[in-house]
Amino acid sequence: MHSLSLKIEPQAITTSLEEPGHFWLVANGFLSTGPNITITWERDEAIEIQPKSITISPSNRTLPFEEHFPVQVTSVLQGRFLIRPLVLPPTVVDDSRLFTQLQVAKYQPLIILSMLIGWTYTVCWTIGDYFQAWTSFKRKSVVGLSFDFLHLNVVGNCCYATFNVLLFWNNHIEVKYFNRHPFGLNPVIANDVAYAVHAVFGNVVLIVQCYIYQSDGNVVSLPVKALMSGYVILVAVFCALALDRQLHWLDFLYMLSYVKLSTNLVKYIPQVFMNYRRKSTEGFAISNRLLDLAGGLLSLLQMVLNCWNYDDWQSIVGSPVKFGLGFVSIFFDVVFMVQHYICYNNRKEVRKDTE
C-alpha cells in the first residue's frame, strides 16, 4: 500500500509554440520517515520544464497532507507530448496518474477557432431534431417520416448516452479504463454527456409524435424489429455477464458503443428508401439534414485544422472508424439533398381523397 500519492493536474494542457503552459504536481498522503522524494523530468530537447526538480521532505509530515507544486513547461516544437516525471525512490509512491499530455499548437488563434467550430457543430447537431418535431407538429402528421429510421436512431443514441453517462460518472469503470490505458484520459467529458442525453430526449419526442399524429399506416418494419430484437438480446446477454462478473462493465460499455456504430451505418437506409418509394420528401424536414451536414463538415474541418495546427496527422489515421462514420453521415445527407432538391423537388405528397 503506497503511503504517498503523486499526480499532475490538469492531465491535459494546450498551449502554443514558445508560450508557457502551467500545471500542478500534487502530493498527498503520508511521508513520516525515509529519504526525501525527488521528482525530476526526462530530458527532451524540444521541451523545457521549470523547476528542474522538486523535493519532498518527510520531516513534519506525520499527518495526512496535500501540497501543490507549480510547474511551467515551454516547447519549441508543435505536436503532442507525454510528460512523465521520474520519481526517486519510487517504492513508497503511487505514481499511476503522474503524467500530463501536452498539446503544442503552431498558432494560438487557431486553438480559439477550433473551439468555436466545435461549439458550432455541436449546436447544429443538437437542434436538428427540433426542426423535424416542428414540421410534424405543423402538419399534425408524420407521413413521410420513416419509423425505422427513428427507432434505430433512438436505440443507437440510448447506447451512446449510457456509454457516456457510466464512463463519466462511475468511478469503478473509470479506474478500469485507466488500468487498461495507463497514460490515457477519460474520453468522455461533460459536454458529451449532455449532448448524448439531449439526443435521446429529441428522439423520444419524435417517436411520441409518431403515435399521436396521422401516420397513414406507417409502422416499424419486420426486418428492423428483428434487428432491434437482436440488439436487445445482445445487450441483455452482456449485461447478465457483467452482473455475474464474467465480464467487466467497461467491456459492456464497449459493446454498447459497437451497437451505436452499427446503427449509424444502417439507420438512414429506410428513410432513403421511403423517399424513393413515395417519390417525395414531404414530411421529412430537410433542414434537419442541412444542419447535420453542416455539423459533419465542420467536425471534419476541425479535425483537419487540429491535425495541421498540432502536426498530428496520426489522430486521423488512428481513428479510421470515427473518420469513416463521419463520411457515412455526410454521404447520406447529400443523398437526402439530391432527393429533396433535384429528384423530387416538384413532387407533392399524394393525399387520399376523403370525400
From TrEMBL:
UniProt-recorded Gene Ontology molecular function terms: L-cystine transmembrane transporter activity; symporter activity
Bilayer topology annotation: Multi-pass membrane protein
Family under the similarity heading: Belongs to the cystinosin family.
Catalytic activity: L-cystine(out) + H(+)(out) = L-cystine(in) + H(+)(in)
One GO cellular component term: lysosomal membrane
Protein name: AGAP013268-PA-like protein
Residue ranges crossing the lipid bilayer per the database entry: 107-128, 149-169, 189-212, 224-243, 290-311, 323-342
Primary site of residence: membrane
Top-rank lineage group of the source organism: Eukaryota
Keywords of the record: Lysosome, Membrane, Repeat, Symport, Transmembrane, Transmembrane helix, Transport
Subcellular location: Lysosome membrane
InterPro entries noted in UniProt: LC_transporter, PQ-loop_rpt
